[in-house]
Amino acid sequence: DAKTTQPPSMDCAEGRAANLPCNHSTISGNEYVYWYRQIHSQGPQYIIHGLKNNETNEMASLIITEDRKSSTLILPHATLRDTAVYYCIVRTLLGGYQKVTFGTGTKLQVIP
Amino acid sequence: GAVVSQHPSRVICKSGTSVKIECRSLDFQATTMFWYRQFPKQSLMLMATSNEGSKATYEQGVEKDKFLINHASLTLSTLTVTSAHPEDSSFYICSARDGDSGNTIYFGEGSWLTVV
After folding, report:
1. Contact A50, A64 (CB under 8 A)
2. pLDDT by residue (tens digit) across A11-58?
3. How far apart are CA A41 and CA A39, in angstroms?
4. Contact A103 B43 (CB under 8 A)
5. A47 vs A56: CA distance, rounded Å
6. Alpha-carbon distance A90 to A33, whole Å?
7. What is the reported pLDDT for B102?
8. Rounded to the nearest 5°, which phi and psi values hold at A75?
9. Could you report the per-residue pLDDT of A59-97, keeping only the tens digit for each?
10. Does A46 contact B102 at a Cβ distance shorter than 8 Å?
């Protein structure tokens, strides 16, 4: 499995863009980068995923470097409800199964 | 996005009894489902992967006879905690793979288990 590294915590002012980095230097060519977030005491929520092109949806943008060794999740206008733990995950294939394993994530605190 | 539902959301059981948690994919068929547990202030830990119609694959250190997983249909997987003990108290989360939406994996709301 490709490992991911994220800063343990970040603060962001409400209304500003939140940029959450993730390193995945051992990612292989057919592995996608997925982002999820977990608000306290809830199941993780899917945000966005990508392979090598930048992606954008109604929740966020995902910027993947050309060498694919790192990525950044961008919440363009953070709100208090975006306070959560954000997980960057690289999907793996193992014996026909697809495992999703979680690292420690980044705890984002949006400050009023 | 696709919806995955877990039931019950909270359950309290007595030590020594068994408890079953259900995980349903509501608007898609899920050939693969995953079960996690999460202790307070910790990340999710993968317990097992199950494919419809076959035996679950358990992660190292997870007792398959204690955590029984059944994936009998494309929309339902169950986790049964047998002979529960207080140390089994945790947040249990399931997820399901939606093969029709680029294999994105969606998570349930989680189930809080308290063993007294």
Report:
1. yes
2. 999 999 999 999 999 898 888 899 999 998 899 999 999 988 899 999
3. 6
4. yes
5. 10
6. 5
7. 66
8. -100, 110
9. 999 999 999 999 999 999 999 999 999 999 987 644 445
10. no
